[in-house]
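Checklist before submission:
- one chain only
- standard amino acids only
- sequence pasted in full

Submission:
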Amino acid sequence: MFDSKEANRAYYDNLLRKFNRPPMNRDELAYAHMHTVDEVLTRLFSDEETLSAAQRYRKKVGYLPFLKYMQMEPDLLSLLEKLRTRVKTTVVTNRTDTMGRVLADNNLAHLFDFVVTAMDVQWPKPHPEGLQKVADHFLVDPCEMMYVGDSQVDEVAAKAAGVPFVAYRNMDLEADHYIQHLAEVSELLNLE
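Returned file contents:
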């Protein structure tokens, strides 16, 4: 839905600067794109004392100042408006307490029937719990759903849940379908 790499870079590099650490490298940024804040901080701060201090600091600063760096994917709004009248739309994300704000700030909240964040599950992606929660909520079989994602944790979660997976702009993933533009979802669902 959003390209959040620059927001993640700014957020975590700010935390690292606070503790006199160098900015994230390429691998750390890729990891931050896919995992929860707790998982990322555990990777960035290996000693318990600094990790605890980083957790306290991040709660004080919050992620909201960094949302301005997120870029909505092209075609998202028009796709959601088209889907909204025909299928249930959901979000399953490893974001924690910022997803509601992201949706509200971008005037998207009304376009989703159900949102599952990392705070709503015991095990975030790549565990399938979030997708299973969606299937249970709508009383559907996972094979009747479709999950669009761009990362390995999305791929693993979809496969484990038995949900057909659509890889967005990432040909390195194992997927049922590959798309380069969100508008292609309409074609996959035969909504044209």
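Reviewer check: The radius of gyration is 17 Å.
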